[in-house]
Write a structure and sequence with these properties.
There is one protein chain. Helices cover 62% and strands 15% of the residues. The protein is α+β, with helices and mostly antiparallel strands. It has a 7-stranded mixed beta sheet, sandwiched between helices. Helix 4 packs parallel to helix 6. It is built from 7 helices and 7 strands, in the order βββααββββααααα. The two termini are 68 Å apart. The chain has helices at 30-39, 44-51, 107-119, 126-161, 165-198, 203-269, 283-304, and strands at residues 2-6, 12-14, 22-26, 58-62, 65-75, 84-94, 97-102. The longest helix has 67 residues, at 203-269.
Protein backbone atom coordinates (compact mmCIF):
# COMPACT_ATOMS: atom_id res chain seq x y z
CA UNK A 1 0.00 0.00 0.00
CA UNK A 2 1.39 3.37 -1.07
CA UNK A 3 0.38 6.68 0.52
CA UNK A 4 1.61 10.18 -0.27
CA UNK A 5 1.66 12.61 2.67
CA UNK A 6 1.98 16.36 2.62
CA UNK A 7 4.18 17.15 5.64
CA UNK A 8 4.08 20.96 5.51
CA UNK A 9 2.30 22.44 8.56
CA UNK A 10 -0.08 19.48 8.75
CA UNK A 11 -0.17 15.84 7.70
CA UNK A 12 -2.62 15.29 4.85
CA UNK A 13 -2.82 12.83 1.98
CA UNK A 14 -1.95 13.65 -1.60
CA UNK A 15 -3.18 12.02 -4.78
CA UNK A 16 0.32 11.78 -6.28
CA UNK A 17 3.93 12.50 -5.51
CA UNK A 18 5.06 16.06 -4.94
CA UNK A 19 8.54 17.33 -4.03
CA UNK A 20 9.32 17.15 -0.30
CA UNK A 21 6.33 14.92 0.45
CA UNK A 22 6.50 11.71 2.47
CA UNK A 23 5.91 8.46 0.59
CA UNK A 24 4.75 5.77 3.02
CA UNK A 25 4.83 2.23 1.65
CA UNK A 26 3.48 -0.58 3.82
CA UNK A 27 3.61 -4.23 2.76
CA UNK A 28 4.84 -3.26 -0.72
CA UNK A 29 3.27 -5.06 -3.66
CA UNK A 30 4.88 -5.71 -7.02
CA UNK A 31 3.37 -2.45 -8.28
CA UNK A 32 4.89 -0.53 -5.37
CA UNK A 33 8.32 -2.07 -5.94
CA UNK A 34 8.09 -1.31 -9.65
CA UNK A 35 7.24 2.31 -8.80
CA UNK A 36 10.27 2.55 -6.51
CA UNK A 37 12.67 0.98 -8.98
CA UNK A 38 11.49 2.47 -12.29
CA UNK A 39 9.88 5.80 -11.36
CA UNK A 40 11.98 6.89 -8.40
CA UNK A 41 15.13 4.94 -9.36
CA UNK A 42 15.70 3.61 -5.84
CA UNK A 43 18.62 1.13 -5.76
CA UNK A 44 17.25 -2.40 -5.88
CA UNK A 45 19.44 -3.70 -3.08
CA UNK A 46 17.92 -1.10 -0.75
CA UNK A 47 14.56 -2.82 -1.17
CA UNK A 48 16.13 -6.26 -0.74
CA UNK A 49 17.81 -5.20 2.52
CA UNK A 50 14.57 -3.79 3.92
CA UNK A 51 12.75 -7.00 2.97
CA UNK A 52 15.15 -9.04 5.11
CA UNK A 53 13.38 -9.40 8.48
CA UNK A 54 16.72 -9.99 10.24
CA UNK A 55 18.43 -6.91 8.81
CA UNK A 56 20.22 -4.96 11.54
CA UNK A 57 19.91 -1.25 12.22
CA UNK A 58 22.36 0.54 9.96
CA UNK A 59 23.11 3.47 7.66
CA UNK A 60 24.09 3.23 3.99
CA UNK A 61 24.86 5.77 1.27
CA UNK A 62 25.01 5.17 -2.49
CA UNK A 63 25.12 7.74 -5.30
CA UNK A 64 23.13 10.39 -3.44
CA UNK A 65 20.68 7.87 -1.94
CA UNK A 66 20.62 7.43 1.82
CA UNK A 67 19.28 4.26 3.44
CA UNK A 68 18.44 4.15 7.15
CA UNK A 69 17.18 0.88 8.59
CA UNK A 70 15.48 1.20 11.97
CA UNK A 71 14.30 -1.76 14.04
CA UNK A 72 10.79 -1.21 15.41
CA UNK A 73 8.61 -3.35 17.73
CA UNK A 74 6.06 -5.65 16.18
CA UNK A 75 3.46 -8.04 17.63
CA UNK A 76 2.55 -11.06 15.55
CA UNK A 77 -1.20 -11.61 15.36
CA UNK A 78 -0.81 -15.31 14.59
CA UNK A 79 0.31 -17.79 17.25
CA UNK A 80 4.09 -17.77 17.40
CA UNK A 81 6.94 -18.80 19.65
CA UNK A 82 7.95 -15.15 19.97
CA UNK A 83 4.82 -12.97 19.58
CA UNK A 84 6.75 -9.81 20.51
CA UNK A 85 9.59 -9.22 18.08
CA UNK A 86 11.15 -6.47 15.95
CA UNK A 87 11.09 -5.77 12.20
CA UNK A 88 13.06 -3.41 9.96
CA UNK A 89 11.68 -0.05 8.90
CA UNK A 90 13.52 1.44 5.93
CA UNK A 91 13.91 5.19 5.46
CA UNK A 92 15.16 6.19 2.01
CA UNK A 93 16.23 9.80 1.36
CA UNK A 94 17.52 11.71 -1.63
CA UNK A 95 17.05 15.43 -2.24
CA UNK A 96 13.29 16.10 -2.16
CA UNK A 97 12.42 12.38 -1.96
CA UNK A 98 11.53 10.86 1.42
CA UNK A 99 10.30 7.26 1.56
CA UNK A 100 9.53 4.88 4.40
CA UNK A 101 9.19 1.19 3.58
CA UNK A 102 8.00 -1.53 5.95
CA UNK A 103 7.02 -5.05 4.97
CA UNK A 104 4.76 -5.36 8.01
CA UNK A 105 1.72 -3.37 9.09
CA UNK A 106 2.63 -2.23 12.59
CA UNK A 107 0.65 -0.39 15.25
CA UNK A 108 3.56 1.99 15.65
CA UNK A 109 3.24 3.45 12.16
CA UNK A 110 -0.55 3.70 12.44
CA UNK A 111 -0.20 5.52 15.75
CA UNK A 112 2.62 7.69 14.36
CA UNK A 113 0.43 9.02 11.56
CA UNK A 114 -2.53 9.52 13.88
CA UNK A 115 -0.46 11.37 16.47
CA UNK A 116 1.15 13.68 13.90
CA UNK A 117 -2.27 14.52 12.48
CA UNK A 118 -3.47 15.44 15.98
CA UNK A 119 -0.40 17.64 16.48
CA UNK A 120 -1.39 19.47 13.29
CA UNK A 121 2.17 20.70 12.87
CA UNK A 122 3.75 18.42 10.31
CA UNK A 123 7.51 18.12 9.85
CA UNK A 124 10.13 20.72 9.05
CA UNK A 125 11.97 18.36 6.69
CA UNK A 126 12.87 14.74 6.06
CA UNK A 127 15.49 14.80 8.82
CA UNK A 128 12.85 15.89 11.32
CA UNK A 129 10.61 13.04 10.12
CA UNK A 130 13.47 10.56 10.53
CA UNK A 131 14.25 11.49 14.12
CA UNK A 132 10.57 11.55 15.05
CA UNK A 133 10.32 7.98 13.80
CA UNK A 134 13.22 7.16 16.12
CA UNK A 135 11.34 8.81 18.99
CA UNK A 136 8.14 6.95 18.18
CA UNK A 137 9.98 3.62 18.08
CA UNK A 138 11.48 4.27 21.53
CA UNK A 139 8.04 5.13 22.94
CA UNK A 140 6.53 1.98 21.44
CA UNK A 141 9.34 -0.15 22.83
CA UNK A 142 8.34 1.12 26.27
CA UNK A 143 4.68 0.33 25.57
CA UNK A 144 5.47 -3.21 24.47
CA UNK A 145 7.76 -3.70 27.46
CA UNK A 146 4.90 -2.78 29.79
CA UNK A 147 2.72 -5.38 28.07
CA UNK A 148 5.47 -7.98 28.44
CA UNK A 149 5.82 -7.12 32.13
CA UNK A 150 2.07 -7.61 32.57
CA UNK A 151 2.31 -11.04 30.93
CA UNK A 152 5.22 -11.92 33.22
CA UNK A 153 3.24 -10.98 36.34
CA UNK A 154 0.21 -13.00 35.16
CA UNK A 155 2.38 -16.04 34.52
CA UNK A 156 4.01 -15.68 37.96
CA UNK A 157 0.59 -15.61 39.65
CA UNK A 158 -0.38 -18.84 37.89
CA UNK A 159 2.91 -20.49 38.77
CA UNK A 160 2.50 -19.54 42.44
CA UNK A 161 -0.52 -21.84 42.57
CA UNK A 162 0.56 -24.56 40.19
CA UNK A 163 3.70 -24.97 38.13
CA UNK A 164 2.73 -25.99 34.61
CA UNK A 165 4.80 -26.53 31.49
CA UNK A 166 2.67 -24.11 29.44
CA UNK A 167 3.34 -21.22 31.81
CA UNK A 168 7.07 -21.96 31.92
CA UNK A 169 7.21 -22.13 28.12
CA UNK A 170 5.35 -18.81 28.00
CA UNK A 171 8.03 -17.22 30.19
CA UNK A 172 10.74 -18.61 27.92
CA UNK A 173 9.05 -17.04 24.91
CA UNK A 174 8.89 -13.69 26.69
CA UNK A 175 12.60 -14.04 27.42
CA UNK A 176 13.21 -14.46 23.68
CA UNK A 177 11.17 -11.32 23.00
CA UNK A 178 13.20 -9.33 25.53
CA UNK A 179 16.40 -10.52 23.87
CA UNK A 180 15.16 -9.25 20.50
CA UNK A 181 14.15 -5.94 22.07
CA UNK A 182 17.48 -5.37 23.82
CA UNK A 183 19.47 -6.18 20.68
CA UNK A 184 17.33 -3.93 18.48
CA UNK A 185 17.36 -1.01 20.92
CA UNK A 186 21.14 -1.15 21.18
CA UNK A 187 21.39 -1.19 17.39
CA UNK A 188 19.07 1.83 17.15
CA UNK A 189 21.16 3.71 19.71
CA UNK A 190 24.34 3.03 17.75
CA UNK A 191 22.63 4.13 14.53
CA UNK A 192 21.35 7.31 16.18
CA UNK A 193 24.84 8.27 17.32
CA UNK A 194 26.08 7.89 13.72
CA UNK A 195 23.24 9.89 12.17
CA UNK A 196 24.18 12.93 14.29
CA UNK A 197 27.15 13.34 11.99
CA UNK A 198 25.72 11.91 8.76
CA UNK A 199 22.54 14.02 8.40
CA UNK A 200 22.21 17.82 8.31
CA UNK A 201 21.14 18.50 11.89
CA UNK A 202 19.93 21.94 12.99
CA UNK A 203 19.24 23.21 16.51
CA UNK A 204 15.68 21.87 16.57
CA UNK A 205 16.88 18.46 15.43
CA UNK A 206 19.57 18.50 18.12
CA UNK A 207 16.91 18.95 20.83
CA UNK A 208 14.87 16.16 19.28
CA UNK A 209 17.91 13.87 19.19
CA UNK A 210 18.43 14.50 22.90
CA UNK A 211 14.83 13.47 23.60
CA UNK A 212 15.27 10.35 21.48
CA UNK A 213 18.47 9.46 23.32
CA UNK A 214 16.72 9.73 26.68
CA UNK A 215 13.81 7.56 25.54
CA UNK A 216 16.16 4.98 24.00
CA UNK A 217 18.20 4.77 27.21
CA UNK A 218 15.05 4.31 29.24
CA UNK A 219 13.77 1.59 26.91
CA UNK A 220 17.10 -0.26 27.01
CA UNK A 221 17.37 -0.06 30.80
CA UNK A 222 13.75 -1.17 31.21
CA UNK A 223 14.29 -4.13 28.89
CA UNK A 224 17.42 -5.11 30.82
CA UNK A 225 15.56 -4.89 34.15
CA UNK A 226 12.69 -7.06 32.91
CA UNK A 227 15.15 -9.53 31.42
CA UNK A 228 17.04 -9.82 34.72
CA UNK A 229 13.78 -10.24 36.63
CA UNK A 230 12.68 -12.95 34.22
CA UNK A 231 16.03 -14.74 34.52
CA UNK A 232 15.75 -14.70 38.31
CA UNK A 233 12.15 -15.90 38.13
CA UNK A 234 13.04 -18.81 35.86
CA UNK A 235 15.92 -19.82 38.12
CA UNK A 236 13.65 -19.66 41.17
CA UNK A 237 10.99 -21.86 39.59
CA UNK A 238 13.69 -24.27 38.42
CA UNK A 239 14.87 -24.55 42.02
CA UNK A 240 11.28 -25.06 43.19
CA UNK A 241 10.77 -27.84 40.65
CA UNK A 242 14.00 -29.56 41.71
CA UNK A 243 13.04 -29.24 45.38
CA UNK A 244 9.58 -30.70 44.73
CA UNK A 245 11.10 -33.55 42.76
CA UNK A 246 13.56 -34.27 45.59
CA UNK A 247 10.70 -34.32 48.12
CA UNK A 248 8.69 -36.74 45.98
CA UNK A 249 11.68 -39.02 45.45
CA UNK A 250 12.46 -38.97 49.20
CA UNK A 251 8.87 -39.91 50.03
CA UNK A 252 8.75 -42.69 47.47
CA UNK A 253 12.09 -44.08 48.68
CA UNK A 254 10.91 -44.04 52.31
CA UNK A 255 7.71 -45.88 51.40
CA UNK A 256 9.74 -48.46 49.48
CA UNK A 257 11.97 -49.03 52.54
CA UNK A 258 8.94 -49.38 54.84
CA UNK A 259 7.45 -51.99 52.52
CA UNK A 260 10.79 -53.74 52.16
CA UNK A 261 10.88 -54.97 55.82
CA UNK A 262 7.67 -57.08 55.65
CA UNK A 263 8.86 -58.46 52.35
CA UNK A 264 12.22 -59.39 53.87
CA UNK A 265 10.61 -61.12 56.87
CA UNK A 266 8.15 -63.00 54.68
CA UNK A 267 11.00 -64.09 52.44
CA UNK A 268 13.03 -65.38 55.38
CA UNK A 269 10.16 -67.39 56.85
CA UNK A 270 9.10 -68.53 53.42
CA UNK A 271 12.43 -70.21 52.64
CA UNK A 272 12.42 -73.98 52.30
CA UNK A 273 14.53 -74.34 55.46
CA UNK A 274 13.90 -75.55 59.00
CA UNK A 275 13.19 -72.60 61.29
CA UNK A 276 11.34 -74.32 64.17
CA UNK A 277 7.89 -72.91 63.43
CA UNK A 278 6.78 -75.14 60.58
CA UNK A 279 4.43 -77.28 62.70
CA UNK A 280 3.15 -74.82 65.35
CA UNK A 281 -0.05 -72.86 65.02
CA UNK A 282 1.44 -69.56 66.17
CA UNK A 283 4.16 -69.44 63.45
CA UNK A 284 2.22 -67.42 60.97
CA UNK A 285 0.79 -64.92 63.54
CA UNK A 286 4.32 -64.33 64.88
CA UNK A 287 5.71 -63.63 61.41
CA UNK A 288 2.77 -61.35 60.67
CA UNK A 289 3.11 -59.48 63.98
CA UNK A 290 6.85 -59.11 63.50
CA UNK A 291 6.32 -57.68 60.01
CA UNK A 292 3.70 -55.27 61.31
CA UNK A 293 5.93 -54.18 64.23
CA UNK A 294 8.96 -53.52 62.02
CA UNK A 295 6.85 -51.61 59.48
CA UNK A 296 5.24 -49.39 62.16
CA UNK A 297 8.61 -48.76 63.81
CA UNK A 298 10.31 -47.78 60.56
CA UNK A 299 7.32 -45.62 59.62
CA UNK A 300 7.56 -43.86 63.01
CA UNK A 301 11.28 -43.19 62.53
CA UNK A 302 10.79 -41.82 59.02
CA UNK A 303 7.95 -39.58 60.18
CA UNK A 304 10.16 -38.19 62.96
CA UNK A 305 12.80 -37.34 60.36
CA UNK A 306 10.14 -35.81 58.04
CA UNK A 307 11.03 -38.23 55.25
CA UNK A 308 7.38 -39.11 54.72
Amino acid sequence: MRTFWNINRTLSTLSQWEPNCWIQITCPSETDEKYLLEDLKVPDYFIDDIRDKDERSRYDYDDGWTLIILRIPYVKEVRSRTPHTTVPLGIVLKGDICITICNYETNMMIDFVSYQQKRNIGFTDAVDLTFRLFLSSAVWYLKRLKQINTLIEEAKKKLDHKISNDDLIGLLRLQDSLTYFITSIRGNETLLSKLKFKLPVDEIDADLIEDVTIEMNQARETANIYSNILDTTMQTYASVINNNMSAVMRTMTSISIVLMFPTLIASLFGMNLINGMEHVWWGFPVALALSLFVSVASLYVFRRKSWI
